[in-house]
C-alpha cells in the first residue's frame, strides 16, 4: 500500500460519519490552489479499512467517533492497517492529552473540528504527506546504516577531533571483544591496541584532520593489547559537518591477516620454487601463447649455451635450434595451445648448443589464466641420452639372444625328436624281442605237446570203438576226454599260428563278401541265441589284396567274441565303407610292429563289428591283445583269439581297434589301406616269431 506521488492528484480518504462535517471538509479541500486532491468519503471504520487495503491513498482524514469504533482505538486500528499512510486525526474535542497520545503513536496531526479553516487544513495535509515521506526516507537511511554497520565484515568507526570513538560497527566490537558499542565510546586506540600501533594510528588520524587529505589502502600491522597480531587494509578520511568543517575522522579497515599470511607463504614458496627450478638437472621453462620464453632455469640455459635470463626471455625456439627441429617444436606447442591437451613423456631428439645429438623425455602442459583460457605452456624435459643408448645396446643384445634362443630351440627340438624316435625304436625292439621269446616258447611247447596229444587222441578213439563198457559212465568219460583233447589241440594250433605265421596267399577280394561268408560260419551260434543281424555293407568297394582264409579267421574270432558277449536277442551290426583319413585321426602305436604305416589323406577300407553286449571292463581293455589274456570264464576261451587276430591284420598292413561304446557294447574297427589298383600297402613281414 504505497501513497500516491506528489506529481499527480493526491488521493485522500475521509472516514467521517457526519455528512455535514464531510461536506465542509470537501469544500475546504476544494479551495486549494490547483485542485490537487481527490477525496473519497466513507462513514464507517470498516469501510475505510477496506479502501485502505486496496491501496493508493496519500493520506487519511480520520474521525475518532464512528458508529463502529470510538476514541483512540479508532486510530490504532487504522494505523495498524496502513502504517505507511499518514493520518490526520479529526476530533470534535479539544483534548490535549489525546492529541499528544495520537501524535506520539504515529499520527501526523490532530485537528479540532470547528477550529480548522481551509488554509489550515490544506497546509496540514501537505505538511503531513511531506513529513511522512521525510520520516520514511530518514528511517530507510538509518536502517541502511545500521545494516551496514552490523553486517559488513569490514571494521567501520567514527571519531571526534580527539580521535575518540563516537560510533563503531559490529566488526570493531568483535575485534575489541566488547559486547556493546557504548563500551568504546569516548575511548581511543590506546585503550585497545599496543602503544606502538595505537600511537602510529593516532598520528595518521591527526594528519588526516589537519590536512583534510585521506589515507587510502594502507596496510597496517595491528598489535592488540593481548599481543595478538593482525593485518588490516585501512582507509582514513576527515569527518565534516554540514558547513564543511572537519569535526573528526572516520575509517574503514579490512582484516587481511589471512591474505597477508598467504602472501608471506607464497613468497616463501616462490623462493623455494625458484631455488628448486634453478637447481634441478631437468630443463624447465615457460612460454607464452606466441612461443616466447618467459621463465627458464639454469639447466635449460646451459643446454641453449647462454648464461643469463636476458639472453633467453622474449626469444623463441627458432633462435636456438635448427629450423627443422624448431619447426617441429613449434607445431607441437601450437597443438597444445589449440587443444588444451598435455603432451606427456614424449621422447624426442634435440641438439645442444655444440650440435651434439641427444634425447629428451619431454612433458608440456597448457598454462591457463583464472578464466581457464590457455595463455601459454609449461615444459619440463629430462636428458635420457644415456638411457636411450643403453636401450639400443640392450635391444641389440636381446635380438642376438633371441636369435641364439631360436637356434637353441631348433637344436633342442631336433634332439627331442631324435630322442622320441630312439625311444620308439627301442620300445619296438624290446616288444619285438619279447614277442620273439614268447613265439619261441610257444613253438617249443606246441612241438612237444602236439605229438603226445595225437597219441592220446588215437587211443581214446580206439577205446571208444573197441571197448565194451561194463560201466555206463565210461562212454561219457571218454567223450569228455576227447573234447578236452580237441580244446588242447585248438590251443596248440593257435600257438603255432601265433609263433610261426604262414606266408600270405593274397589275391583281390571283396571285403563285404568275406564278412558275409564269416557270418555264415557262425550261423549256428547266432541262431541259437536269437541274435539279430543288421548289415550296412557297401557295394562296389574297391578290391583289396588279402589272404581270404586268414581274414575270414579274423572275422570269425570277432563275431564269436561278440556273440559270447551278448545276452539272448542281442543285435550284431556289420558295416563296411571306404573313407579318407583326416589329420590326427590315426594315433601312433609304439607297440605295433607296423607302427606309423597310416598317414593323413590315405584311403582306407573300414570294417566295423558292433555288438550290444556287456562291454569290456576299462581296466582290462588295454590287455585284450596280450597272449593268453581272456575275459571269458575258464574253459570258454584260450586267450589267443585276439592276439592272432591282431597278428593277421598287421601282416596285411592293416590296423585293428577295439573299444567300448557309450551306449553299451563293443565296436571293433579294422582298417586296410587301399592303393591304386586295389592293392594294399606293401608290408614286409618280419622274421616269424620262434624261428
Would you give an account of this structure?
- It is a single chain.
- By secondary structure, the protein is of the alpha+beta class.
- Helix content is 44%, strand content 23%.
- The chain contains 17 helices and 24 strands.
- A five-stranded parallel β-sheet has the order 2-1-3-6-7, with helices on both faces. Strands 9-8-12-11-10 form a five-stranded antiparallel β-sheet, with helices on both faces.
- Strand 16 (357-368) and strand 17 (374-383) form a beta hairpin.
**Intertermini distance:** 139 Å
Measured on Cα atoms, how large is the radius of gyration? 65 Å
SS strand fraction = 15-25%
* Main beta-sheet annotation: 5 strands, parallel
For the largest beta sheet, what order do the strands appear in spatially? Answer: 2-1-3-6-7
Shape: elongated
User: Helix proportion of residues, in percent?
Assistant: 40-55%
- Counting H and I runs of at least 4 residues, what is the number of helices? 17
Summarize the model shown.
By secondary structure, this protein is α+β, with helices and mostly antiparallel strands. The chain has a five-stranded parallel sheet, with helices on both faces.
Question: What labels would you give this structure?
Answer:
single chain, 691 residues, alpha+beta, five-stranded parallel beta sheet, five-stranded antiparallel beta sheet
Which SSEs are present, and which pair or pack?
Blueprint: E1 10-15, H1 19-30, E2 37-42, H2 45-54, E3 59-63, E4 65-66, E5 69-70, H3 72-81, E6 87-91, H4 96-104, E7 109-112, H5 118-151, E8 155-160, E9 165-168, H6 170-176, H7 195-211, E10 215-223, E11 229-240, E12 246-255, H8 257-279, E13 283-288, E14 293-296, H9 298-304, H10 323-339, E15 343-351, E16 357-368, E17 374-383, H11 385-466, H12 474-499, E18 507-509, H13 511-521, H14 523-528, E19 532-537, E20 544-546, H15 548-565, E21 571-580, E22 603-611, H16 618-621, H17 641-651, E23 655-660, E24 666-673
Parallel strand pairs: 1-2, 1-3, 3-6, 6-7, 19-21
Antiparallel strand pairs: 4-5, 8-9, 8-12, 10-11, 11-12, 13-14, 13-17, 15-16, 16-17, 18-20, 21-22, 22-24, 23-24
Helix pairs in contact: 1-5, 11-12, 13-15, 15-17
Amino acid at each position: 500500500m504505497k501513497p500516491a506521488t506528489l506529481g499527480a492528484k493526491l488521493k485522500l480518504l475521509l472516514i467521517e460519519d457526519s455528512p455535514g462535517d464531510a461536506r465542509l471538509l470537501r469544500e475546504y479541500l476544494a479551495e486549494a490552489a490547483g485542485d490537487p486532491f481527490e477525496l473519497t468519503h466513507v462513514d464507517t471504520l470498516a469501510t475505510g479499512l477496506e479502501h485502505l487495503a486496496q491501496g493508493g491513498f496519500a493520506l487519511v482524514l480520520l474521525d475518532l467517533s464512528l458508529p463502529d469504533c470510538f476514541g483512540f482505538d479508532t486510530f490504532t486500528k487504522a494505523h495498524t492497517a496502513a502504517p505507511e499512510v499518514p493520518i490526520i486525526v479529526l476530533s470534535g474535542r479539544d483534548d490535549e492529552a489525546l492529541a499528544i497520545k495520537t501524535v506520539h503513536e504515529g499520527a501526523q496531526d490532530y485537528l479540532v473540528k470547528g477550529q480548522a479553516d481551509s488554509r489550515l487544513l490544506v497546509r496540514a495535509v501537505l505538511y503531513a504527506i511531506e513529513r511522512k515521506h521525510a520520516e520514511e526516507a530518514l528511517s530507510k537511511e538509518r536502517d541502511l546504516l545500521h545494516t551496514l554497520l552490523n553486517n559488513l565484515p569490514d571494521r567501520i568507526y567514527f571519531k571526534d577531533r580527539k580521535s575518540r570513538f563516537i560510533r563503531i560497527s559490529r566488526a570493531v566490537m568483535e575485534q575489541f571483544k566488547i559486547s556493546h558499542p557504548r563500551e568504546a565510546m569516548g575511548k581511543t586506540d590506546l585503550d585497545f591496541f599496543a602503544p606502538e600501533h595505537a600511537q602510529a594510528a593516532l598520528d595518521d588520524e591527526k594528519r588526516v584532520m589537519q590536512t583534510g587529505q585521506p589515507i587510502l589502502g594502507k596496510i597496517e600491522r595491528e598489535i592488540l593489547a593481548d599481543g595478538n597480531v593482525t593485518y588490516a587494509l585501512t582507509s582514513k578520511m576527515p569527518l565534516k559537518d554540514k558547513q564543511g568543517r572537519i569535526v573528526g575522522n572516520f575509517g574503514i579497515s579490512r582484516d587481511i591477516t589471512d591474505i597477508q599470511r598467504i602472501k608471506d607463504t607464497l613468497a616463501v614458496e616462490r623462493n623455494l620454487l625458484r631455488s628448486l627450478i634453478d637447481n634441478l638437472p631437468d630443463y624447465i621453462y615457460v612460454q607464452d601463447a606466441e612461443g616466447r620464453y618467459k621463465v627458464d632455469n639454469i639447466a635449460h640455459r646451459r643446454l641453449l649455451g647462454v648464461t643469463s635470463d636476458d639472453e633467453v626471455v622474449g626469444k623463441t625456439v627458432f633462435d636456438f635450434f635448427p629450423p627443422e627441429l624448431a619447426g617441429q617444436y613449434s607445431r607441437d606447442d601450437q597443438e597444445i595451445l589449440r587443444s588444451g591437451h598435455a603432451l606427456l613423456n614424449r621422447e624426442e631428439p634435440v641438439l645442444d648448443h655444440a650440435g651434439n645429438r641427444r634425447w629428451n623425455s619431454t612433458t608440456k602442459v597448457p598454462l591457463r589464466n583464472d578464466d581457464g583460457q590457455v595463455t601459454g605452456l609449461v615444459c619440463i624435459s629430462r636428458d635420457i641420452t644415456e638411457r636411450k643408448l643403453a636401450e639400443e645396446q640392450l635391444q641389440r643384445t636381446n635380438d642376438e639372444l633371441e636369435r641364439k634362443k631360436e637356434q637353441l630351440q631348433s637344436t633342442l627340438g631336433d634332439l627331442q625328436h631324435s630322442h622320441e624316435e630312439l625311444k620308439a625304436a627301442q620300445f619296438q625292439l624290446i616288444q619285438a624281442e619279447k614277442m620273439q621269446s614268447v613265439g619261441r616258447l610257444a613253438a617249443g611247447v606246441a612241438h612237444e605237446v602236439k605229438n603226445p596229444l595225437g597219441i592220446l587222441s588215437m587211443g581214446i578213439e580206439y577205446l571208444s570203438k573197441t571197448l565194451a563198457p561194463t560201466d555206463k559212465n565210461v562212454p561219457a568219460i571218454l567223450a569228455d576226454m576227447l573234447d578236452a583233447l580237441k580244446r588242447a589241440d585248438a590251443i596248440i594250433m593257435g600257438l603255432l599260428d601265433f609263433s610261426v605265421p604262414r606266408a600270405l596267399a593274397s589275391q583281390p577280394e571283396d571285403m563285404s563278401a568275406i564278412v558275409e561268408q564269416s557270418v555264415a560260419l557262425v550261423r549256428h551260434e547266432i541262431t541259437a541265441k536269437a541274435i539279430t543281424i543288421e548289415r550296412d555293407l557297401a557295394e562296389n568297394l574297391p578290391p583289396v589284396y588279402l589272404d581270404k582264409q586268414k581274414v575270414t579267421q579274423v572275422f570269425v574270432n570277432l563275431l564269436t567274441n561278440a556273440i559270447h558277449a551278448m545276452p539272448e536277442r542281442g543285435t550284431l551290426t556289420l558295416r563296411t565303407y571306404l573313407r579318407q583319413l583326416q589329420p590326427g585321426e590315426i594315433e601312433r602305436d609304439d607297440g605295433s610292429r607296423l607302427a606309423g604305416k597310416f598317414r593323413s589323406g590315405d584311403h582306407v577300407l573300414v570294417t566295423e563289428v558292433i555288438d550290444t553286449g556287456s562291454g569290456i571292463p576299462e581296466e582290462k581293455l588295454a590287455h585284450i591283445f596280450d597272449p593268453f589274456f581272456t575275459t571269458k570264464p575258464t574253459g570258454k576261451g584260450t586267450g589267443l583269439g585276439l592276439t592272432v587276430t591282431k597278428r593277421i591284420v598287421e601282416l596285411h598292413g592293416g590296423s585293428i581297434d577295439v573299444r567300448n561304446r557309450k551306449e553299451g557294447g563293443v565296436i571293433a574297427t579294422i582298417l586296410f589301406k587301399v592303393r591304386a589298383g586295389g592293392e594294399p600297402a606293401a608290408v614286409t613281414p618280419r622274421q616269424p616269431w620262434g624261428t
